Structure formats: structure tokens, C-alpha cells
Amino acid sequence: MIQLNGKKNEGRNNSYLPLLLKIVASNLVFLLIILIAVFRIIIPAVDENNTELNKKLSMNLVQIAISELNEWDQRVVRKEITLKDAQRKSLMALRNLKYGEDRKDYYWVMGRDGKLIMHPCQPEAENISPAELKTDIGKDLKLLVEKIDSIYKNNSGGFIRYKWPMNKKGTIIKEKISYVQKFSPWGWTIATGFFVEKTDNEISQIKKKITYAGIFLALITILQSLIISYKLYKTELKKVKISKQLMNSEQKFKTMFETSPYGIALMFLDTLEIIEINPAFTKITGYSIEDVFRKTTVDINLGIGIDDLNRYREILHSKGHLSNSSYHIKRKDGEERSTVSSSVVFSMGEREYVLATMIDVTNNINLSQAKKDLEEMIASRTSSLAKLDSELLQTRKETKEMKRKLVRSTRAFEFTTESFMITDKDANIISVNPAFTRITGYSEIEALGENPRILKSDRHEPEFYINMWDELQQNGFWSGQIWNRRKSGEAYPALLTITAITDDDGKIENYIAISQDQSELHQSIDELEQSRMYDKLTGLPNRSLLIDRLSVACDRADEKHGSLAIIMVGLDRFTNINAALGYLFGDKLLHAAAMRLQTLAGNALTLTRFEGDEFIIIFPFEKNMSKALEFIKTLTGSFKEPFHVDNETIHIDASIGISIFPQDGRTPDELLKHASIALDKAKKSEDRTFRLFTEDLNASVKKTITIENKLRDELTFRELYLNYQPKVKPATGKIVGMEALLRWKNARGENISPAEFIPIAEDIGVISKVGKIALFDACSFNKDLADMSYDQVVAVNISPKQFADRTFTKDVLTTIETSMLDPKMVELEITESAIVSDMVRAKRIVEELNNEGVKFSLDDFGTGYSSPSHLMNLPFSAVKIDKSFIDDITVNPKTIAVLSSLALMARNLGIKFIVEGVETEEQLSLVMDLEQDVIIQGYIYSKPLSASDFIKLIGKPSPFSF
Questions:
Q1: pTM above 0.70, yes or no
Q2: What contacts 854, CB < 8 A, 6 or more positions away?
Q3: Edge-to-edge strands of the sheet including 477-485?
Q4: Which end of the chain has fewer CB atoms surrounding its CB within 10 Å, N or C?
């Protein structure tokens, strides 16, 4: 803070008067600053903003109500509700909605004819013409209608000022401001407002408190100055004590400055540099004094531009003050806030300062949203009560008539064990009997006014209810089995009969529904079915249910072109355990084994007890059975743990036989028979683990497991290397790029195809590591080429799972940076399967890497999804056509037509058109006829080469000139 009390006296004052004047003057300067802030800034701000904020609140609340009516009107348009019901429910919601501190502010609604449709505080004036009202309310209402009509001549809404009773008796008439707006679809005028006197009283009270505080502060300041000067004059020995009192006095002013609820900033007038702020300023902006000291609002990026700052300086120089300026500022944390600011210029010493105050009005602006949230909360809590209150009244009227017609059947209705439910013609429940409550759990009060769909169980398709209603409308009768739901949520079966009751003219008046709870009958049937289809010992599905489920699984796999692994698990040496420890013990062991298998299988897989000590698990998969093998390995590993039965610890192994649908059979009998044969082979083998029925598949599985184990070994990654296939522009014969292709030669010198090891690397989660190695090696080789003055773009394939890695962007940039290669010399090839699952994320990644210079090309285009929108929405530099088109180009004229369209699309989008797999002159000629600027990658020019061979090729003057 600026020291406002001046310098300390270094010698004894010879006169009381100069000392008094000096002290009083120094204190009055600070007092003047406070009074200026109070009377020139704070009070005007309160005076001017309070009424405006109330007007804005009224306008926002009316617009909220208009929005709510629009939603009701749209439901009427969609024929979800009648216009009459929509108007009735919306009026009920507005009538119950009160707001304000004392909950006395309200909405009122007026119709086309000038009648009040709804007024919560003067309901006696509702639906009555103003001319018919003999009270003062009628006169006020007539004037109000005239003012509203004058507003609608110019626009659809505005503020009106009028007089209206403040109390229900109408004895206190006060001036009021309301915002009115027309809701044209219904011809309604929606309004709400506030009494001016109430607002003025609030402002007056605030002014009084601030004024009294200012006067009290002035008196305290003057009195304190007299006491301090007198004590200083009396004795030099008390100088230290007096100095402390002066410091305490300054601290009081500082406390007022720091505890003000308004943000205050002190600035130099000439530079507008901030030299002091109070905590409220920090709270509003997020900036501390260290952040803003000797800086302007432009320097700290507060959201106020240099033009605004210059205009602010000009106004202060010319007028000396600026009141109630609105600003949208940006806090230090980036959050935007709305403020109202006032400033005043004052002099202190030889320099001029600016004292600026700031009020955060964001919460007031957001009041409409908060109000909407409040209304939604109130509506959600009161809608059911309002609906019940409205419909119960109608239901009671109709019930009286119904009772006269059903009086002779009342006792049967009350005491029968069947559930009776009577509805009106619109299917609203008007009566239920005690059996209904006992069966459904809904009390009579809860059911009345509701639709019978409260009992809907969701076990039937929509067509079931549509057919039921059609038959009921055509024949006046429906009967059948149905699943309903109790209040508790429990679904139960019922035998339901619905009869339509008509009047003398044949019009439907009511529906009577009689239902019988058949839960006990179904329970008996279920228990019988349970005993027939489930194993009593383990609770698992038995052989009969297995056949059914396996048949269904085969059909589904056939439809989806998938496969099934039928896994038969047999316990080893179980017969010996039965003989040694007894059959009861054996049964307990079987149950324990079943529970362990159930834990592994979970709810996703079908587990059954096949017979004796054998269990069957059905494991569906698509093409690669690696997940099934992973599950089998987990299964065999689980039997390494002992079983604890009757204080006995038992070690027992399991052998597994596997048959595969459809290779090993297409029927359940064939698959189970072959799985049993495979299990027998497993039991007779030395390792006693698992065997597949097909020997060739056994060899393939063993190879897959070998590759998987090798990929888990860090040493394997040293066996990976890259070959490079050139990309050639046939029009010039020049090499315009190359693709890095990953290869693997194991320690025995055997080449392992990428088609074999890449899917396995994806399945076991090491593909990102493999991809990083390939990218780094490719970038390092290309950096060597660049150092030899060969500028080539190297393309590297990216796996979809590698692309989905959350650190993909960071990994790519780090790898390129480590290799010291220019990012512009790198092109990443991705397929459409990598981007379709999350287009937003894919676009963000491609754009981020694009901004760093990395290029992207769309690989294998023409297969899979092949959506042109991907080329339009993502910044690809090239599109690569799948090899299958080239294989077909010489025999299928349609292929040429498709390729021609793709080439034209690439040319119009301004991206490179790359064709791979070209091997013959005929293929090359046909492709060049389609696009002269095509880029070719194929054996016609070169197979993939080692790094050294590629350097030799690129070093030739014209390697592919024709």
C-alpha cells in the first residue's frame, strides 16, 4: 500500500498547530480516497445496478417460462399430449413456482381477451373481464391491458410500469415493474416483475449503512488525529508509542481496503500501471500483487485489449472518473467472468492516481441458468403430486358414476382373490380392489390416475402391446398370458382378461381388467425345468441343456462366419480319489472343481457338467483362436492350486480336449465326440495338458504359442529388421519415397511372416513396442540417407492398436526427435479400421502430428469401410489403393471404373494416388491410363530391399527410366 501518513518526524515539533495540520491532512487524504470510493463509485454502482439486475432477472425468468411453454407446445405438435392438458399442466407448474428471498415473487398469465388466466396472489380476478371487476384490481387490470397492447405494437416483449396491490386484500397499492412477453402459439402473455418500492428500500438501506460508516470513519479519524498530535506535542519520550498508534491507524484503513467485498486496484494515471490490489481483486481475477505490480491489464492478459485501455485512459483524463463499465475479463486460470467497474482519479503529492473498483456479476448473469436448474428440480419433485392432484379430482367424479353401475358387484370386487382394475376410456386407472394391491404392491392412492403401463415388465416386444390394443379396439375383449411387474421391480406372470364397457351409443366408457397371479404355477414349472436341465450336484447346466445351447451357438457362429472352441475338461485320477476317500468326498471335490471353473468362465461363457468328472466350456471366437488358447492356459494353470475339502488338501490335474466348429464338425454330436477323442489323447500324452482334435491345427497352435513366447522375450526384438520398397513415379522413373516393411528372422534362420506375428503382437499387447522399434529404425536409416543428400519420405505402417495407444502422439514425436530426422520426411500409413471407432480422437492426433510436419496416408483403401468422408475430414497427404484391385484389373472392367473414380477423387482432393502390388507391364499400362501422376509400389520396379541394397539402388543416376 502507498504510505498515506507521510514521513515520521525526526525532531521535536515546536508548534502544536503545524503538527496537528500535518497529521490531520495525511489522514484526510486516505479518508478522501475511501469517501470517493463510497460516494462516487460504490453507492452509484449499487443505485444504478440493483434495478437493472432486477429487470434482467424478470426478463430471464419470463424467457425461461416461454421456453418451457415451447416444450409443451412441441409435445402437442408431436401429438404426445392434447393442447388442453398441455395448457393445464403448464399453468399448474407456473402457479406453484415462487422465488425471491421471501418466496413472494410469482408469474402471472393473461389471455388474448385481456382476462387473467392465472394469478397466484389474486385468484379471484382470474377468467373475469376487467370491466366486470368492481374493485380497484379491475381498474388496474384495465390499465395494465392497455400498456401491454402498446408494447406489442413494436415488438413481442418489453417492460411496463404500473400500480398493483402488494397484499391479497388490495389495500396497499404500490408501483411495480414487470417484463411481459407474448407466447404466440397459445395467445398468452407471460409476465413477472418486482415492486419498485421494495427495490428502493433495499437501496436506501444500503446507502444509509455506507453513509453512517463514512461519517463514523471521519469522526474517528479526526478525533484520533487530535489525540495523536497532542501526545506528540506533550512529550518526545512517547514518540515510539505514538508512532505505533499511527501505524495502527493506518492498519485500520488498510483493513478496510483489504476486506472490501469489491475488487480495488490502485494505478498510476499516466501509465495505468497497477501498484496495489486488495484480496477481493485477487479473488475475482486470480492474480496476486506479484503478478500485477507495475503492469497494465494488457500486460497480464486480463482480456482487456490495448484499444480498451487507451479509451479508458482518455475518459479518465477528460472526465476524471468512469462509472459502471461492463467488461468480460479472463482470470489467470483462463476462466471468463463478467464484471462492472468504476474508476476515479485523485492526486496524492505530486502524482495522480486512479482508484478502480470491480464487481463480479457473473453469477447474476448466470441466474437464468440457475433458475432453470431450480425449476427442473422443483418440477421433478412436484410433477407426480401435481398430476395426482389434478387427475384424482377427475377420477373421483367418474368413479361416482361407475359405482352406480357396479353397485351389485361391489362385494365380489372387494373380496375376490383376482386383481380387478377399472380405467376410464383414456386408460387412466379409476379403481382397484384389495387383491390388486396385494399382488402388485401399489396402493389404491398410488394407482389412481396412473396408466396400466406402470405394470409393464419389458419382457414383451412393442408389437405384443400393439396387437393387444388392436384386438381390444376391434372386439372389445382380450385375454391371454402376460408378464407384469410389481412395485418392487419383480416381474410376475399373470392370466389377464380385459373387457371394454360401452354406453348405449356403443362408445367405450371404461375398461375392466381382471388378472390372476400365476407366480406359484410358473415357479413349479421352473423347478421342474431346473431339475430337468441342470445338474443337481453342481448347479451347472447338464448334458440336455448343453445340446440346446451348443446348437444355438453353432447357428450364431455360422451366421457371423465365426468359430467355436468346445473345451472338454476331465479331472485326472478322479476314480482313484473316489475309491480312496469315498463317493461323498468325490462329490464335494466335483462341486469345488465346478465352482473354480465357473469363476474362470464367468457369465460370458457356457459351462456345463457333461458327465462324471467331465465338464464342457463353449468358447466363441472369430478367426484367431489366440484368446481361446490364453483362456485354456489360464484354466490349466488354475488346477495347479490344490483343493481344500473336509480338512483335506487334494492336488488334482485336469486334461483338456478341444474340437473346433466348423472344422471338426457342424453338429453338437460331432463336436462333442471329437472333443472326447481329443481329451483321451491328452490324458494319454506325457504332459497331460491339452490336445486339439485336428493334428494340423495342433501344429498351428503350437507354432502360435512358440511365436507368442518369443515375442514376450526381450531378446526377440533384436531379430526384427526392416526392408525398404521404393515408391516410383512411372512418368519420370524417379524414386519419390519408400515404405519400411518389418521382417523377422529367428535364431535358427527361419523367416516368420508379418501376417503371423503382427496379430499375435497385437493380442498380447506388445505391438506398440514393436511399432516404436520399426519407426525408430526407419527414421534412423532415412537420416543416414539425408546425410548422404538423398531426401526421401519414409512410410511406416501403424497398427490400429498402436494408434489407439494413449501415448501414441508423444511416442511418435519422441522417436523422430531421437533419430534427429526432419518430421517432414516421415509418413505414417494407417488403415480405416484405426480411425472409425473414434473419429474425434483420430482427427486430433492426425492434426497434432500434421502440425509438427508428420504426414499421414490412408492404407488399403477400397476394402473394409472405405468411406470418402475420411479423406475429406482428415488431412491425409496420400491414399494407397489395396493390392486386390490390381490383381483384378486385367480381367474385370468394373475394377478399372472404380479405380478411375478413386483417381479422380484423389486428384480433386489434392492428395497423392498410390497403387501397390503392380507386377506386370499390362497392369502398369492400365493404371497409367487412369492417372499420369500415379505413384507405383510393386515388384515391377523392385521387391523390398535391405538397407544396403536400397542405398545402391538410389545411388544409380536413373534406376527406373524407360
A1: no
A2: 812, 816, 823, 824, 826, 827, 828
A3: 429-432, 419-424, 508-517, 491-502, 477-485
A4: C
